[in-house]
Design goal:
Aminopeptidase; Alpha-Beta Plaits; 4-stranded antiparallel β-sheet; alpha/beta; 2 domains; 390 residues; binds nickel (II) ion
Length: 390
């Protein structure tokens, strides 16, 4: 008898929603997912699995099929955010100042649902499924590297993962066959001028004035130095200088973010930042320091695996509801896994304006249409099975 994935997923529908609400109520920050880890382990044990702790507060478990074959890993991130939960629901966070405002509660619940589905079909399974419950996605440098160091990918042929995605309507999914999410770099420019009295600027080197020129010049980089065929963002989040209206300060600090999809574009942008700072400061008599912090690599999907995942999406949702999206300029440390083994990341739509589910990720009122969880479980189950066979 052939087991229907759809029926197995349907049986777990209430379980997955209950788990999602449990985690929404009990969120923990990256690196501190102690209770979350305990809960995941106890749920997996109750399914007859033998989970192990990994990367501190993460969990790895495996479902071994009745016949040997490939191994597909499915990854979920499990951490919450330092935000006060403001949803008006009985499952609002009970941990003050911590909230699952990115949907990782749903990711964790879906992976537990997948554990149930696959443990219910071991007899039919050729190959193994490894479940990766990864801590600390939101906090740089991310928990993926620690998971990999802890053997999470040993023996794995393919890795897949999903993010529940508010901009997409529930009942749809988003995928790309190449670049999917950018690498996020941070930079800090500290301009050293020479402060003094506001009435005598001729005796000073005004770092606000120098900083302002740098701000304007930085905005030309993506427009003038990078081809329009390349995706790149340079934005500023901080410009700090001075305290008082009549004192020209000594220093000014600019901080910003660079998002790219290739090392070449990344290198060009940072070379341009350096060149502009150097030229403008030299012309003004100021000096500067530039500190960069490189973020994750970009999420770039393996086209062949992405086609397998899209085929799973077509089977579950219907072809018109699997959307080839433009790459997002946000970032994900799932990319570290893709550096090791071929993989694919996907977005599962959770938006539903009629149900009032319209607040963006990281908003205190972020919520999801929970119908999406069943779609997510079924798509990932179908995808994993196809990848085991491929
Ligand atoms: Ni997230």
């Amino acid at each position: 008898m052939k087991i229907s994935i759809h029926d197995l997923v349907k049986e777990q529908q209430h379980y997955v929603i209950a788990m999602r609400r449990y985690f929404r109520m009990t969120p923990e920050l990256g690196g501190q997912e102690f209770e979350t880890q305990k809960k995941i382990i106890s749920e997996l044990r109750s399914m007859g699995l033998e989970p192990r702790q990994a990367a501190g507060t993460g969990v790895v478990a495996e479902i071994t099929g009745s016949r040997p074959g490939k191994m597909v890993a499915i990854r979920a991130d499990i951490d919450g955010l330092p935000i006060q939960d403001e949803i008006d629901q009985p499952y609002r966070s009970q941990n003050a100042g911590v909230c699952h405002a990115c949907g990782h509660d749903g990711h964790t619940a879906m992976l537990l649902g997948l554990a149930k589905v696959f443990s219910g079909m071991r007899a039919e399974l050729t190959g193994n499924i490894r479940l990766l419950f990864q801590p600390s996605e939101e906090r740089f440098p991310g928990g993926a590297l620690a998971m990999i160091a802890d053997g999470a990918l040993d023996g794995v042929d393919t890795v897949i993962g999903a993010h529940l995605w508010q901009p997409l309507e529930v009942g749809t999914m988003g995928i790309t066959y190449g670049p999917m999410m950018a690498s996020p770099d941070e930079f800090t420019i500290t301009i050293q001028g020479c402060g003094g009295h506001g009435s005598m600027p001729q005796q000073t080197i005004d770092p606000i004035y120098v900083g302002a020129q740098i701000v304007l010049a930085l905005k030309t980089i993506t427009g003038n130095q990078i081809s329009t065929n390349e995706l790149a963002v340079l934005s500023l989040g901080v410009f700090k200088a001075g305290e008082v209206f009549n004192i020209i300060p000594d220093t000014a600090v600019l901080q910003g973010s660079v998002r790219t999809f290739s090392q070449r574009v990344r290198d060009t942008i940072f070379a341009c930042i350096e060149q502009l700072c150097s030229g403008i400061c030299a012309a003004s008599g100021a000096t500067y320091t530039l500190d960069n912090r490189n973020g994750f690599p970009p999420v770039i999907n393996n086209p062949q695996i992405a086609r397998g995942v899209a085929a799973a999406g077509n089977a579950v949702l219907g072809e018109s509801r699997v959307i080839e999206i433009s790459p997002a300029m946000g970032a994900e440390d799932f990319s570290w896994y893709q550096q090791q083994v071929p993989g694919c990341f996907m977005f599962i739509g959770i938006g539903n304006k009629e149900k009032g589910v319209s607040y963006p990720h990281h908003h205190p009122k972020f919520d999801m249409d929970e119908q999406a969880l069943s779609y997510g479980v079924e798509i990932m189950a179908e995808a994993a099975l196809r990848l085991l066979k491929s």
